[in-house]
Amino acid sequence: MINQLLETWTPAQLGLVGDVLEVIRAPHPVLATEGADVDPMDPVMIALAADLVATMRVSPGCVGLAAPQVGVAAQMFALDVTGHPKTRTCHGVFVLCNASVIEATRQEKAREGCMSVPDLTGDVKRATRLTIRGTLPGTVDLLTLTTDAFEARAIQHELDHCAGKLFLDRVAGAHALYPRKVYL
């Protein structure tokens, strides 16, 4: 089910232009800290949402960014898989607060990278079909989003950040890690 809220939401509705923030790299402790729930109506959280979008947009190859990656242990992430070659379903750019998985099916292994772990990629098994629920910043209504393929993988990657996990925590072992060959 595509929620009507997501179809009409844009970062412009946040009412401000975000600042580009520094992306935190492992092993910084905030990356291993579970994020706190946020009030999506809090002006500080609305500003953080704008910052996540601004930082994501200036970072080549970036399709998602979670609050812990900019040093804030909070349940918020931005995502935009538009134009990525592996994208099948795309909901454009959005930010979600306090998101949780409602349903996840069909596990598949694929390669992932991360701005917080810039020198490595790894094979990670994730659901290829996903339904999540969360709140858009600046609203109080729950949104339900169903997606698949690359967008589902990217969402799960960002949800892991919000839970204090990195893709490194999900690889099967050192044999599933690889030096990054292309620096974006």
What does this structure look like?
By secondary structure, the protein is α+β, with helices and mostly antiparallel strands. Helices cover 18% and strands 31% of the residues. Strands 1, 2, 3, 4, 5 and 6 form a six-stranded antiparallel sheet that branches. Strand 3 and strand 4 (117-135) form a beta hairpin. The longest helix is centred in the N-terminal third of the chain and has 15 residues, at 43-57. The mean pLDDT is 94.
Q: Which descriptors would you attach to this protein?
A:
single chain; 184 residues; alpha+beta
Give the biggest beta sheet: 6 strands, antiparallel
Name the average pLDDT. Answer: 94
**Residue windows where pLDDT falls under 50 for at least 5 positions:** none
Count of runs of 4 or more consecutive helical residues: 3
